[in-house]
Amino acid sequence: MSRRADTDVADLVERARAGQARAVARLISLVEDASPLLREVMAALAPHTGRAHVVGLTGAPGVGKSTTTNALIRELRESGRRVGVLAVDPSSPFSGGALLGDRIRMGDHAEDDGVYIRSMASRGHLGGLSATTPQAARVLDAAGCDVVLVETVGVGQSEVEVAGLADTTMVLLAPGMGDGIQAAKAGILEVGDLYVVNKADRDGAEKLRRDLRSALRLGASWADRAEGDWEPPVLGAVAQSGRGIPEVVTALDEHHAWLSGGEGLALRRTRRARAEVEAIAVAALRAQWDDVGARGADLDSLAAAVAAGESDPYAAADRLVGR
Amino acid sequence: MSRRADTDVADLVERARAGQARAVARLISLVEDASPLLREVMAALAPHTGRAHVVGLTGAPGVGKSTTTNALIRELRESGRRVGVLAVDPSSPFSGGALLGDRIRMGDHAEDDGVYIRSMASRGHLGGLSATTPQAARVLDAAGCDVVLVETVGVGQSEVEVAGLADTTMVLLAPGMGDGIQAAKAGILEVGDLYVVNKADRDGAEKLRRDLRSALRLGASWADRAEGDWEPPVLGAVAQSGRGIPEVVTALDEHHAWLSGGEGLALRRTRRARAEVEAIAVAALRAQWDDVGARGADLDSLAAAVAAGESDPYAAADRLVGR
């Protein structure tokens, strides 16, 4: 009971819902640190979730994600909306986060209590999106954020991951970062609900927008489109000056309205919950496998047998799951 | 028994070991297609694995991975070694592989039966390294390849994945693709056993090599180095002309010798087998979860309850694993 005396989850959730930034911060820390209270926190938050529009923002390093996030916050605040930002940096474990000090610019909003910004380090070598990001997004949702922006460095896998997490995925590009076809190789044409070419005042921006539109039309998902399906717009913006940002917010709102008008929102959220539940279940099983099992079939000794050619991976997996 | 009449696994493995390219191709197809014979194939291969030097080659799009692979094959063939190549393209599902026709250049070796090249599409949205890549590498290993090169488009996650798969990870860079610090954001400084700056005849190549060396020395893994640890070399090459490629092969051999001299090779291979076994076990459990469970706790209905705020992800995961 002494832990409950230190941290009253119900009270914390109440204060977070009332907009207290410190309570929000504490809840996200409980989530990030996999606190023993985590289950209690998630159970207390569940009834209050589902209101926020979760927007994933992804793009290669250097396209201006932080500047764009900043501009989007400003625009969303002007329309009176509360904004939460989770900045996930899938960079190397040794840096512990951004190397370039990007985050500092977000200090612009430090005194606005309608904005909550949190930088989330990705943990360990299997980084990308931190496993706790979906839970942190739930905290911001329950805390009354109208929009939750999840910003990731778009390097391959994390783009796909952020698309799994978000209601709306916005892919940011910029001219001079490699051509459109190269971009296609990283799979971004599959994930975007909205494409924004930042630095639209630079050479090559118009060409990039044209190339992107062509590439999108070449994609299989385009061919499968039906009447009434969402057509991802390809917008231009100059985040530094704010040019084009109101149009980006309008497009985000339109996508949200489109999703809400059909089954899209429920489908995406069920898919997201599915991935979350599965990840938590898999993590629980992995923790079991790391112990020496009652069957003597712990993962380490099975792996050693496979490496030595004494067993094969399928036979070892069968033993692990107790077949 | 009729299936056995069509595909005699033992015979196929025997022919693959004798160097018949069609038998190798058939075995990899059985692996890729998750054939019902897969378990039998892997069990038959196991005793013949562990000889090949598995080299991961990764780098951003445009650095010249295919050209470098080509040059490495040529160099390895000159020293009489048999070479297997798995070209994994973590690009979008709709492209089904490379968009740029990179692979065509590999046709140079089409008539050399000491070279086996296979392009492996990554499957589905959770692509990156195809889940079957480690098994395909086992096929090439058992088929007598001295070196198995696994080439991936290095976009974040896949670099880390290829490092998990390989004995030796070679990171390819090129000048003019963004500065060293940007490279660091994608985590490549953690994974390389060997760094090669391709297009070394271009402006900025020397600076890139210097920056890389500095960045490597700033890394945590450098500080933890002990006497006798491997120091990742940073080489230069012009793959197009073959300049520097013999030195790259020498460095690969040196790393292999270093690994073999200590416990490094066994450790890496056990780690690799561990990841393989775990992935197969998780896939088996996921397949179970997709069915309506005996407890009525199938993943879809649990996910729908979480999405609706009626449950939380932890409670749902507990039900899924039957706690």
UniProtKB/TrEMBL annotation, chains A, B:
The keyword Chaperone applies. Pfam families: MeaB (PF03308). InterPro entries: AAA+_ATPase (IPR003593), GTPase/Isobutyryl-CoA_mutase (IPR052040), GTPase_ArgK (IPR005129), P-loop_NTPase (IPR027417). One of its GO terms (molecular function) is GTP binding. Keywords: Chaperone, GTP-binding, Hydrolase, Nucleotide-binding. Residues 51-279 form the AAA+ ATPase domain. The keyword Secreted does not apply. It comes from the Bacteria. Belongs to the SIMIBI class G3E GTPase family. ArgK/MeaB subfamily. This is Methylmalonyl Co-A mutase-associated GTPase MeaB. The gene is meaB.
